[in-house]
What we know:
Chain A is mainly alpha-helical. Helices cover 73% and strands 2% of the residues of chain A.
Amino acid sequence: MNSWLTVAAVLLPIAGGILIPILPFRRRIHMEWYIEALVIATSVLVWCLLLHRPEELVLLRFTDQIVFTLRIDGLGTVFAGLISVLWPLAILYSYEYMTHEERERPFFMFYTATFGVTLGIAFAGNILTMYFFYELLTLVTIPLVIHTFTRDAVLAARKYIYFSMGGAAFGFIAVVFLLYYGGNTEFVLGGFLGSLPGGLNFNLVLAVFVIGFIGFSVKAAMFPFYSWLPDAGAAPTPVTALLHAVAVVKAGAFAVIRLTYYCFGTEMLIGTWAQKLVLSLAMFTIVFGCSMAVRETHLKRRLAFSTVSNLSYIIFGAAIMTTAGLAGALCHMVFHAIMKISAFFCSGAIMHQTDHHFIPDMDGFGRKMPWVYGAFTVSALGMMGVPGCCGFISKWLLAEAAIGAGTVWTWIGVAALLISALLTAIYMMTFVVRGFFPGKDFDYEKLRDVRDPNWKMILPLAVFSIAIVGFGLYSTPLTEFLSRVAAGLI
Amino acid sequence: MKSLFVIVVFYPMLGAILGYLIGRKSKEARNYFADFVVISEFCLMLLALVKLQGEELFLDEICGMGLHFAMNGFRGLYGLIAAFMWMMTMIFSREYFAHYRNRNRYYLFQLVTLGATVGVFLSASLYTTFLFFEIMSFTSYVWVAQDERKESLRAAETYLAVAVIGGMVLLMGLFLLYNEIGTLEIAELAQGCEASPHRTRLYVAGACILFGFAAKAGAFPLHIWLPKAHPVAPAPASALLSGILTKAGVLGILIVSCYMFYGDKPWGSMLLLFGVLTMFGGAVLAVFSVDLKRTLACSSMSQIGFILVGIAMQCLLGEENALAVHGTFLHMMNHSLIKLVLFMVAGVVFMNIHELNLNEIRGFGRHKPFLNLAFLMGALGISGMPLWNGYISKTLIHESIVEYGSSPEFVFVEWIFLISGGLTAAYMTKLYVALFVERNTDEKKQARYDAMSSSYMNAQSRFAIGVSALVLPVLGIFPTLTMDRLAQLSQGFMGLSEYGHHVHYFGWESVRGGLISLAIGVVVYLFVVRTFFMPRRNGVRVYADRWPAWMDLENLIYRPLIQYILPTVGQFVCRIGDSLVDTLVVVLRKTIYNDRKIPYRTGRLPKADVLFGTFMDWYAVRLRHRDQAVSYRRSLRRRKVERKESRLMIRRSLSYGMQMVGIGMLIVVGYLLLYRFAH
């Protein structure tokens, strides 16, 4: 396949997105068709690229070290494949959701352009290119966070900028270090730094790694730099669901994996204090995020805290620094994306239909919105890790990898996973139970106006629910594929 | 033929969904359909028991590690008992639920749980067991919460909490075990554990797994959900919870004990300790209880204790555990069948008068010979009366304790065993006398109860209860023909190949233990229950709840721990974590990046400003008769500083920079144009 198509896949949604406010659509439906077609075309193109992997493409060459390359490898395949499936469904959902909001066109412009930027992160061939798209992602998503222009949204956007830019600044230290000592900065599984570059102090290298790791994990909302994520829930739900549960935050996790496995290399890091530090941060976040979610009564914020916790599952898997750990992390990346986007879409549907935001106001809704609550229950069970849902598979893989690594730290991690599963059960099930079992004398008359949304919202939910159960029952091809990716065979 | 495994497990689940859809159209059709599903499931299970003996089925790659089913005597029999109990309760449900809301939901979860339970019993790897065990736990939650009363929801919450915590600990145990021996296949466990050099790790793994299963079985101190959930669940569900779901937990304990720790003395001693506590504690709770279903629930706990003692004796006796093996299995089976009858009778009482308190339901059973007889069968069975089935299994377990030796500890265990048996007889007598012998203290109520004697249940319920009750004496009267054979069929699962004993069930040695128990029961009933537990109020003896209300393990320890103490600690940590970054920012702003305040002294002003300001001040004071509080001079100065500040801000801002760049570009363009025109 022509390798210039890689650039096309990145540029198509960006260019097409910029056209949205300019093109003269007569009716809203025309715009809907245009955007859907654009996104589906991009997705199809992406899948073609993934299946017939083109050669590496050097876009620009500033100096010998500073090169701008796009290349598709195993890890990028997983990330790009994931988001290109989710984006068309999210677009479909947001048509219905955005009917209540203003300024649709700029919204869709940025929403579509983000797709291209995220693909850029997935396809980036070296750390510099990835860094470029990583910064771009922050910029292009700010208008989405601030979209409603309420006070909360403005504050959230400000916080988002500070955190993201600050994190990227930390990441930049690692990038420069790698550029300087790495020479050729092409991503290689196992790292390109070699043993120890140029007689450097080993602890210095580790310190740079830790700085870079924490910097990039700001987007993945790892403790202590997580608080932008719950606040960013002020954005419209399609943004929260797709960007703040999948694209942006997983880009953070993706960058962390790139940094650990493809730049520094696990051989050098495993067993050092740096690994222990990042492991314990991840473990703490796992439990911490869940505890915060239990405390929270605002539905979207609760789900956001749940995302905080679940992203650290991925980081935890990556920080185990074994092939099995990476496979578990990738598996959770995929499955959590499906489950969380489904949960957010359900919460969005509830807000869209009823304008309620707090969980205590949602008693008894389950009977009136069986589709939405059914989908939410499936995703709740999945996130708890109930057997038969996909969350169980990824948690099993993570725990197996953690125990297989055989150190005390990773064993504590298993305990953290289980405690977090318990807390997940509390914060997800209390909501589901309130919805379905409001109590014996509950007055359903109050909920006369509560009903399921139309098919545009239901269809994505149904697809996700089927995927959650389907992957829970049969996921071997996917897990095999992911472990081959983790082993560098693909 | 092997596909039969898949069918018996997933057929009820499929039926559940179909039934739900049918139920949305017609309730009557749904009831018939549900009956059809459970009856055909029973037939399929029977077929599977006969045809699949010794077969196995691997479903690779399903649910991650793949499902693995196997069939042998024990699994098949228990699957069959499960199907039988579901069949009977389903037939009974029709009348019981006639006036309930949300029946569709109940039927849906009822059938899904059937499939999951059969899956648990047929599983051949702990992984498969765990999968179906969890599904079973979650779907049965709905049973407890079914009527959505406050106390039901609370009990359901407890049930779910125990199930989830138990499931998590169980999963941890499975991880540890898998890491240690590299397999979860039940058949390979024994070998793997034998070969493992780390005994301690095995004990830790085993303890975690035991915790998970014991929570479901209702062993002390994890029994808290049992006495709460049973009384509030609908009676058919209580029968299943108590009769079969607890046995799924026992199955897990059996797997751990017979495969991982076969003949392991420390493990056996620990189990014996918990077994004795559960057995005795449950019996004492049951004697104290004044609620029909709560008594039966505590009785279930006590009987699980008997079974645990049997399992412990298997471990302690090692190779010579034949009696314990038979006793354990038979007591499991008997308890399932007996509790089925007893809970259905309780269901009949509840569906007629919606009361469970002994003082309220007193005398309900008078002039209802059918109900009386059915309850009597169950009561005699569970009390261990010779010629009824419970007697046989209790005798076997008792014999195994006697066989182990006569050291003082075991004499003590034996006596606790006999006393617990006696307490069983005492509380069953209490229930029987209250329901069927005494008259209600309120004569109006008694008259109402008597008037029901022909209409209190329909033919279908009669059939379900009658058949279930008839099984009990048949098993008890012909033990060698029935029970011994069933036990022999299932003994392979517990690692017993040959059964050399021939117990004379009705010989003096055997009967003596049973009679001692019954004698204790009579004494307790006459001298404790009828005096201490039945004080006189207004000249009549009433049943009094003598259990101090504060003595409740759940409310005393677990709930405070989980609802207050742990959250407080967590909240403290969360607060600190939550404000960590913000605090850092505040500290930085206060120290390094502190905002410069606008200084009061503003430096020199241009001469003209000073002159003008001075003039204005003078003018204000002289001509307009103001005092000098408002100084034009000073405000001019302040404004100047403000201008300076804002200029600074504009200059530092991004847009200013952009503007400058733009202007620069314009100039460049202009210059280029000029240059072009010049040449």
